[in-house]
Amino acid sequence: MTNSDLTPDLKYVRTEMTHGISPPRGEHGLANWLRTNLFATPVDAALSVLAILVLVWLLPPMINWLFVNAVWTGADRSVCTTAAQGGIQPEGWSGACWAFVDAKFQQFLYGRYPIDERWRVKLVAVLFVLALVPLLIPKVPHKGLNALVFFFVFPIVAFFLLVGGWFGLPYVETPLWGGLLVTLVLSFVGIAVSLPLGILLALGRRSQLPVIKLFSVIFIEMVRGVPLVTVLFMASVMLPLFLPPGVTFDKLLRALIGVALFASAYMAEVVRGGLQAIPKGQYEGADSLGLNYWHKTALIVLPQALKLVIPGIVNTFIGLFKDTSLVYIIGMFDLLGIVRQNFADANWASPQTPATGLIFAGFVFWIFCFSMSRYSMFMERRLDTSHKN
Amino acid sequence: MASQDITESGRESPGVSWLYDPKIRGIIYQAVTFIAIIGLIWWIVGNTVANLQRANIASGFGFLNGRAGFDISQSPIAYSSDATYGRALLVGLLNTLNVAVIGIVTASILGFLIGIGRLSRNWLVRKICLVYVEIFRNVPPLLVIFFWYFGVLSVLPQARESISLPFSSYLNNRGFFFPVAVWGENAGLIGIALLIGLALSFLVFRWARKRQMATGQIFPVYRTAAALIVGLPLLAFVVTGFPLSFDYPQLGTFNLSGGTQIRPEFLALFLALSFYTAAFIAEIVRAGILGVSRGQTEASYALGLRPGQAMRLVVIPQALRIIIPPLSSQYLNLTKNSSLAIAIGYPDLVAVGGTILNQTGQSIEIVAIWMVIYLGLSLITSGLMNWFNAKMALVER
């Protein structure tokens, strides 16, 4: 039944739909995109032209250096140096020396960890991924058990595997560790220690008990006021002085203590921000339900506070991950340190080596930090229960 | 009646011990913490004293008067290896302040430009700024320093084949060389003229503001101030007979002579800190501008302000309130990150202190000096920023 049957005499009422008129020319397509996004105003147009000029000036040489002129394989420095520098490349050549990264790749990963024992590091890496990935995917069940495995069982297993000396595994002393292995060990322990310690310090700073509050404030402000380099110096030079004669600490352990204490002070401030943002009614509501302090904190306050400060917590993690590179200054060789150390290798020294090695190390650091920040954005959206759009 | 029963029985009833009184519990907790921490400190101090006695190290700050015996590659004040340890530390402190102040200025300018660029309507500018921020936020600062030092500045040509830049300046692997201005006689007059210009423009600014408040008439303050600040010294320059000449760097066979040299260590540290911190400042600026609600901009358009005016008079003053607190912590971070200088041999406070520590073994004193100085710098910076913040803060009834 059509409309015309119902209203036969209304001749001016349209009986079928018309097609929409297509937008005017220039309101869609590439030309419109260019006009609104690049050439909206004269200033915009000038900026665009300037930006294009800068890109044309920068990008082709960069791509040339990184890929086109780069050397991918080779046995020693001769492939990455010009004839005048004692190599095989023509005069004026410049390009990335990926052959250097290729030759040193194992060292960048493991440091001087004995070659026959490297399967242990690989096994730990596999266990790490197996324990971490289910923890990161929200849909996988048994989060509590998984967290227990990741934060308590895995570190113990990893410790025995990496250090050795038990169950017939040869002992590998920590000065032999290096490269990405040290970076990841430092960051993992730093993260696992600094989060609980930071929460405790933040609670201490918000505590009603003046003595506990005072100690927390002194610790947090002292650590936040000084650079990590001095904290590491303190851990490496002064810690042996603080201990009874004869007691010695492993160098890696000292760096770990320094990094973890430093990060926990920053973590404490982040968590305190979250605690302060929880309305007073939540505390009072918990009190009126008869919960004691720890129940109130663990069941009511912290779940809300930590959710609020996820970006800050992950930022602190990223900062900690980047800061592990500073252990180079107290004579340890993490990823950046081992790359830096290899510049001096006479077999590979060339004008192109440092830049290539650093770009490689930067890329590795970038991947880790960037994925952490993207994951935190994902979690933030997932946990967002507010009603704002 | 019932409530009275509860309050009375709460403490007096026989089943509840005083152990459950929160006040008494609090005192017990605090006493335990206090005793534990004091005990720990006591133990550490005892161990340290025993260790120092065994190592035959005299504690105290007397060593600061000893002869340093090492050279410092760059120093803003007179220093030789015969100077004292105290003076060497002072040189280190000045070098730290030097790179921190210049770095803060550059990082702020760069960061504000990139932060505004991230909000640009221009797609290309927006993307370039995004790529910049994402690259520099996600790599360690030490790596950026190494990149500038080993990857860029060390592979520059030798002095003989220096890259020549405009204004007779040269760039080679020994640093950046540029002409230095040599002021002739009566040049002090130009400085005095500049000071007078600054003072006059300040007075004009205050007078114009008062008049605008009272009558609504606008006085062209910026143009007057520019004329005063540039014009007066220029006038003095002409009157005193152009007392200015330049000492140009001369290209010799092995090195450059004359002019001023900026060493690659300083240049690498300065560039790395500025580029790294600028990425963080850019994000802070972006968040600050986005934090001002759109209604503010629309309302100022409704009042008839032009986009530039709306930005300058309405959006930026409000955005600054959001920007300043995190910005000040970035400034502190930059100052603290300048201690990475030790990795490339720029003689800052930590590098000089490390050398002294190795020579004398006075580790406790050196670490204490570091802590006091860095804590002091932090307090001064945060004090300044708090003052500025209070000036910019919302004035409420």
UniProtKB/TrEMBL annotation, chain A:
The alphabetical list of record keywords is: Cell membrane, Membrane, Transmembrane, Transmembrane helix, Transport
- InterPro entries, per database record: AA_ABC_transptr_permease_3TM (IPR010065), ArtM/GltK/GlnP/TcyL/YhdX-like (IPR043429), MetI-like (IPR000515), MetI-like_sf (IPR035906)
What name does the UniProt record give this protein? Amino acid ABC transporter permease
Signal peptide range: none
Looking at the record, the residues that make up the ABC transmembrane type-1 domain are: 180-371
Ranges annotated as spanning the membrane: 38-59, 119-137, 149-169, 175-202, 214-240, 252-271, 326-343, 355-373
Organism classification, top ranks?
Bacteria, Pseudomonadati, Pseudomonadota, Alphaproteobacteria, Hyphomicrobiales
Q: Which GO terms describe its molecular function?
A: transmembrane transporter activity
Membrane topology, as annotated, equals: Multi-pass membrane protein
Q: Which NCBIfam families match?
A: HEQRo_perm_3TM (TIGR01726)
Any one Gene Ontology cellular component term annotated for this protein: ATP-binding cassette (ABC) transporter complex
Q: Name one GO biological process term.
A: amino acid transport
Q: Report the domain of life of the source organism.
A: Bacteria
CDD domains named among the record's database cross-references: TM_PBP2
TrEMBL record, chain B:
Q: Name one GO cellular component term.
A: ATP-binding cassette (ABC) transporter complex
> What is the annotated localization of this protein?
Cell inner membrane; Cell membrane
InterPro entries for this protein = AA_ABC_transptr_permease_3TM, ArtM/GltK/GlnP/TcyL/YhdX-like, MetI-like, MetI-like_sf
Which terms are listed as keywords in the entry?
Amino-acid transport, Cell membrane, Membrane, Transmembrane, Transmembrane helix, Transport
Q: Where are the transmembrane segments?
A: 27-45, 89-114, 135-156, 176-205, 225-246, 266-285, 367-388
The Gene Ontology biological process annotation of the record reads: amino acid transport
Principal localisation: membrane
Which intervals hold domain ABC transmembrane type-1? Answer: 93-385
Q: CDD domains from the entry?
A: TM_PBP2
SUPFAM superfamilies listed in its UniProt record: MetI-like
Q: Membrane topology type, per the record?
A: Multi-pass membrane protein
Q: Which GO terms describe its molecular function?
A: transmembrane transporter activity
One matching Pfam family? BPD_transp_1
Write out the similarity annotation: Belongs to the binding-protein-dependent transport system permease family. HisMQ subfamily.
Q: In its UniProt entry, what is this protein called?
A: ABC transporter permease subunit
The source organism is Phyllobacterium salinisoli
